[in-house]
Amino acid sequence: MSTPTAVDVPTLLEISPQGGIEGRSRRYEKYLGDMDGVYRDEQAWQDAVGERGTDDLVYWVDDQRYQEGPGALIVGTSTVLPGLYGEEFAVTRGHLHAVADRAELYYCLSGRGVMLLETLDGQTSAVELAPGQAVNVPGHWIHRSVNVGDEPFVTLFCYAADAGQDYAVIAEAGGMKNLVVADGDGWALKDNPDHTGYRAG
Ligand SMILES: O=P(O)(O)OC[C@H]1O[C@H](O)[C@H](O)[C@@H](O)[C@@H]1O
Ligand SMILES: [Fe+2]
Q1: DSSP 103-144
Q2: Which mutation among 57, 63, 95 tests ligand 1's pocket best, with the greatest number of atoms within 8 A of CB?
Q3: Which-ligand-closest: CA of 102?
Q4: What CATH class is the domain 14-191?
Q5: Looking at the DSSP assignment, which residues form a beta bridge with residue 77?
Q6: Which spans of this chain does the record mark as coiled coil (predicted)?
Q7: Residue 26 CA: distances (Å) to CA of 39, 74, 75
Q8: Measured from the CB, is residue 159 less than 6 Å from ligand 1?
Q9: Do 164 and 98 touch, CB atoms closer than 8 A?
Q10: In whole angstroms, what is the distance from residue 148 CA to residue 152 CA?
């Protein structure tokens, strides 16, 4: 059991529905240039880089944490800006927790999105989220936020402070099994033909 420290005190967090936390510990920003290899349509991503440059902000995360040890929670907001790369909607890189059994809650604050979920043994799920809706993601599910609207997709998340992130799992598999693509006014799932299957769990 970890010894409480002076900073282990309850903290009031002011959470903006547009994303952002007063009282955060950290802000983490991802730019278009960081998304190399994430979208299946490489040319579409290259074209976007040509138009907007590598320094164009695509998503950002504010979080608050008071210790790294097991038992503590990380609370944050994730703001994914809208976009389309070929037929694919704007996504976060996505990950499996490094401590794979760690769960995560995502509560939609604004915008319209999909939480794309997959397991190493091939189960898939996609949960659409509108403001007021949440998804309780069990451990062992790879998760990626997808903005399927035309405004920022903002979620409040909460997960165990010792979870960590494994990003290689998606890259090694040629991307996630499913793509979230534009379909009329909405979205649809499409098989990613480059997906080779995940490594053994
Ligand atoms: O970590 P990424 O897949 O790039 O997504 C960005 C963020 O998504 C979620 O909201 C997680 O809880 C964050 O810890 C993570 O950093
Ligand atoms: Fe996570």
Answers
A1: -EEEEEEES-EEEEEE-TTS-EEEEEE-TT-EEEE-TT-EEE
A2: 95
A3: 2
A4: mainly beta
A5: 62, 156
A6: none
A7: 27, 11, 11
A8: yes
A9: yes
A10: 9
Question: By alpha-carbon position, which residue is closest to atom 6 of ligand 1?
Answer: 92
Contacts of residue 10, Cβ cutoff 8 Å, sequence gap at least 6 = none
Rounded-to-integer distance, Cα 135 and Cα 173, Å: 25
Distance 199 CA to ligand 2 centre (A): 19
pLDDT at position 51 over 70? yes
121: which 2 tokens? 């043994």
Give CA–CA dist 91/107, Å, rounded. 17
Taking Cα atoms as reference points, which of 164, 117, 124 lies closest to residue 145?
117
Q: Among residues of the chain, what percentage have pLDDT more than 90?
A: 90
Position of tokens 């995502």?
Answer: 106
Reported ipTM: 0.92
pTM, rounded to two decimals:
0.95
Domain boundaries, the chain: 14-191
Tell me which amino acid residue 41 is. D
